[in-house]
Amino acid sequence: MKLLVKAPAKINLALDVLHKRSDGFHEVEMIMTTIDLADRVELTLLNQDKIHILSHNRYVPDDQRNLAYQAAQLLKTRFKVEKGVMISIEKIIPVAAGLAGGSSDAAATLRGLNKLWDLGLTLDELAELGSEIGSDVSFCVYGGTALAKGRGEIITELPAPPTCWVILAKPFIGVSTAEVYRRLDINGMNHPDINEMIAAITQQNYQEVCSNLGNVLEDVTLNLHPEVAQIKDQMKRFGADAVLMSGSGPTVFGIVQHDSRMHRIYNGLRGFCDQVFAVRLLGERHTLD
Ligand SMILES: C[C@@](CO)(OP(=O)(O)O)[C@H](O)COP(=O)(O)OP(=O)(O)OC[C@H]1O[C@@H](n2ccc(N)nc2=O)[C@H](O)[C@@H]1O
Ligand SMILES: Nc1ncnc2c1ncn2[C@@H]1O[C@H](COP(=O)(O)OP(=O)(O)O)[C@@H](O)[C@H]1O
What we know:
This protein has 289 residues and is of the alpha+beta class. 33% of the residues lie in helices and 29% in strands. It is built from 10 helices and 11 strands. The model has no long low-confidence stretch (mean pLDDT 96). Bound molecules: 4-diphosphocytidyl-2-C-methyl-D-erythritol 2-phosphate and adenosine-5'-diphosphate. The active site is at 10, 136. Residues 66-144 form the GHMP kinase N-terminal domain. Pfam families: GHMP_kinases_C, GHMP_kinases_N.
């Protein structure tokens, strides 16, 4: 038996950090939304009690360090599953890019194995398990659009933002999330207004979504990698309505509503960046079918 599960990337429309916690993590408030750029996770049922992983990508570990492997291992031990699985990941989402590719592969594995191993868990239960793997995994279990609090694992569903194109541009560098949080100056931040962003989304006000994009991690990564600022400037020059770095970066996204502008930005940035994509937002949450 085989199952193909889509694992979409996320962008952070707003990312605020409130303070550093005693456990070393940061208390965050983020507005996250999934986009139509996805890895494909293929799960094949094995009768031996084993987890095999194939990643076909030299930047993605093909052993127990892979977050999808960790998701399978977690379900296996927690629910004493005696069956096994072969996990094959077709990697489309850029790695270490601020797009939660690894977290989404883990979340897709949780959703898929719930079915393949017949575990009967709810999305809420899968999301809670996901938080043991990484801070972004709970959001990725649900997908759609949400407010994420705590260290990222407390999820409140939001409506889909107004329809738009998202152009993603990743420079030729990868960024360590831990290092970006470590370098954050808690007292020197320009906080985005999370409530204004929630209101803009709820009222389907595209202009206000554009005005309220904000990410406190952006300055940290911009200081480390000036090419991220250059990409932001270019996107604006080619006509993006608003531009922001996603998560800890280094991927920059720009949003537009008109097809012609999307083409202009996409064509303008290709060749200048490592990878460029033009995609739609994914409005809907995942369901357990
Ligand atoms: C910044 C964000 C924004 O969505 O995403 P990415 O840029 O990684 O995609 C997330 O907060 C990242 O989530 P995720 O990548 O799952 O983080 P984890 O694996 O749990 O943690 C990696 C490291 O980041 C730091 N970390 C993470 C989350 C958090 N709320 N506070 C932190 O300080 C910790 O140092 C931790 O060791
Ligand atoms: N399935 C996976 N896909 C991508 N990276 C993975 C995966 N499993 C583990 N990793 C590790 O996690 C790191 C960050 O991965 P990723 O999720 O792509 O970035 P980000 O945290 O910036 O969103 C990678 O450098 C890689 O070593």
